Amino acid sequence: MLTAYAQLAAAMALSGANVAVAKLLAGALPIAMILGLRCLISSAVLLPLALRRDGARLPPPGVLGNLFWQALFGTVLYNAALLLGLRLTTALEGGLVLATLPAVVALGSALFLGEHLPVRVWLAALLAAGGIAAVTLARLAPGAGGSLAGNALVFVGVCGEAAYALLAKRSVGRLPVVTASLWMQLFSALLLLPAWLPWAGEAAVLADPILAGLLLFHALTASLLSLLLWYAGLVRVPAGTAGVFMAFLPAAAAVSALLFLGETATATHGLGFALMLASVLLATWPARSRT
């Protein structure tokens, strides 16, 4: 179980670190193009892996439909809303808005998957949600930056990512991980193609090796490695508990904003980090066995 916890934490930490990367890319490329190229790169890497490991076979219709909705909510809606929001708010503040993910996923797993959540998981989700309250307080400080509209868009992305997590739990184990990831990226690329193809000429800015490197890193980590790690961990962890590990996403986003974008944090932001860490410990502490 500790291995599964580590996989979930690593997946969310990689996704969080990509918030700062996405903010840099969003200043140079159309959002749909960033997402479309990212999905095409991931598909090119996943295709030979899937053919070698799993062979060429079409998933059952029900699984295929589920992967389509995962692509729509988890790739298109989440990333588009996140990138649009990051154009208006800071990476630090937008990243910490994502602290609502554990609470949204926990609620969704109980309402839509019928999972029975232990009291401590509900408490852990509430602690993680307390991180967003800390961000709200931090915005009251002079010169705090951020934007209500930007944060609202990020929260729309939160809802998309929560829907993806619940859909992934419903279909996990019905298809090999690499093949499932490939189909999700292919669906995402097809959904995004009409939005960015008319502006394909703007990809000329990728002649800058720094921007090209950022896009490659973004594709291989956000759309590939983090996805594979999340699927692997989700096989052995209930969706409600797995949702708590999404607290690593805003934490990593905030750290990357501080280190690479030069943004500043306050003591109130520190309180938000403490609440998220407490939520993970509460959700993953080994339960006392009963005879």
- Rg calculated over all Cα atoms: 18 Å
The overall pLDDT average reads 82
Tell me the fraction of residues in β-strands, as a range: under 5%
State the share of residues found in helices, binned by percent.
over 70%
Order of helices and strands: HHHHHHHHHHHH
Count every beta strand, where a strand is a DSSP E run of 2 or more residues.
Answer: 0
Q: Helices and strands: which structural class?
A: mainly alpha
Overall shape? globular
Strand count, sense and barrel status of the largest sheet are: none
Span of the ends, CA to CA: 21 Å
Outline the structure in words:
This protein is mostly helical and 291 residues long. The protein is 76% helix and 0% strand. It has twelve helices and no strands. Helix 8 packs across helix 9. The longest helix has 26 residues, at 61-86. The protein is globular and about 50 Å long.
Please give a handful of descriptors for the protein shown.
291 residues, mainly alpha, globular
Walk me through the topology.
Blueprint: H1 2-26, H2 31-54, H3 61-86, H4 91-97, H5 101-112, H6 119-138, H7 148-171, H8 177-196, H9 209-234, H10 239-244, H11 248-260, H12 267-284
Briefly, what is this?
76% of the residues lie in helices and 0% in strands. By secondary structure, the protein is mainly α.
